[in-house]
Amino acid sequence: MLTEKEKLDILALLGIELNQVKDLDMLLERVLSEARHFTNADAGSIYIRHGDLLHFTYTQNETLQQRLPQGEKLIYSTFSMPIHLKSIAGYVAATGNTLNLPRVEDIPATAPYSFDRSFDEKSGYSTRSMYTIPLRTTRGDILGVLQLINAKNESGQIAVFPREDENMMQNFASLAAVALERAQMTRTILLRMIRMAELRDPKETGAHVNRVGGYTVELYEEWARRHELSKKELDKNRDSLRMAAMLHDVGKVAISDLILKKPGRFDQDEFEIMKQHTVLGARLFLDAQSEFDEAAGEVAMNHHERWDGKGYPGHVDAFNQPFPSYVLPNGKARGKIESEIPLYGRLVSLADVYDALSSARVYKEAWDEGKVLATITEARGSQFDPELVDIFFSKLDVLRSIQERYKESL
């Protein structure tokens, strides 16, 4: 349990720390973790508002997490619900009022809202106390809803959320909403850049890049766990990595429509031009001002390298000039081999191919999952880092949930 002074200290630092997290998904996870720590809550969820709907975006549950083997994650279905007074989250979003419910089973029959027990019945969880607070933007608009479940006392028993903490939680929610509003703007800018590429290449959709970003971070988290990276290092890296992975093909904006939109296979000359999107993308981040810029340049340059050295563009600079010690007899650069390929490039390579094979496009149907997985298995040790392929299969259920979360819009 945090003392009053510890809570004040957290609030003093929270605005600075949250504003250092740039990626929206990483920030949602961080906000929920900090809110649960702040209130000693066993579980919680965040809903984000889109028009007249609330999207169930992130959730955490310590009790259910402890039932899983180490390294596994809880998988939740994503859903949307209309903003109305009938649900607790909907009521808070519609009215802007905070609800502190000591016992959800004691909600009076006269209340407009009620507690939906379906999740508890399916999971075997028991929701008792609940604290639901609106997330307001600087203009006073409702950005979303933060919902905390089952406060714990010093003995670890389920308790009520203290009324005396409500003012501090209002301040917490305000700080979180400011950070989330900024992260939403950053995500919007990224997606606009990607839509520029999509105008040129129909493969580069917002859903595709969100999936690639999500897959990449999941693979990286497990790699980091196996390599015993510190939590501080992991949190710092995955924020930049997710955004960088989303921009892996941004260099395609500089490739001619005659090539990008060609319906058939490229001839050799066309393929050589197409390969240039890697160095063109890396060139955008030459004047690196941040860790994100460095990660984005690394991903753009290296996501088409192969573990066996048969990928591209190989050992070249951002102007496609081969480094002298890696020039082949034909004057071209040798492809990067195995660990010569930076980790971020190896991660995005696997994530990108998995999504490309699994997704329908205007020119192809989505492959059957069995065929996709067989192809990745066959490419272990040739196209892909063997360790990352093993990690891929260990996280397959989570990757499927990301695929479900970011579906293509019809």
Task: Outline the structure in words.
The chain is of the alpha+beta class and about 400 residues long. The protein has two domains: about 5-185, GAF domain (Beta-Lactamase, 2-Layer Sandwich), CATH 3.30.450; about 200-405, Hypothetical protein af1432, CATH 1.10.3210. It has 15 helices and seven strands. It is elongated. The N and C termini lie far apart (about 45 Å). The model has no long low-confidence stretch (mean pLDDT about 90).
CATH superfamily of the largest domain: Hypothetical protein af1432
C-alpha end-to-end distance:
47 Å
**Count of discrete structural domains:** 2
The CATH topology of the largest domain is given as Hypothetical protein af1432
List its traits.
410 residues, alpha+beta, Beta-Lactamase, Hypothetical protein af1432, 2 domains, seven-stranded antiparallel sheet, 15 helices, elongated
Topology:
Layout: H1 4-18, H2 24-39, E1 41-50, E2 53-61, H3 62-65, E3 79-82, H4 88-95, E4 99-101, H5 118-123, E5 130-136, E6 142-152, E7 158-159, H6 166-200, H7 206-226, H8 231-246, H9 257-260, H10 268-283, H11 291-302, H12 343-358, H13 369-378, H14 386-394, H15 396-405
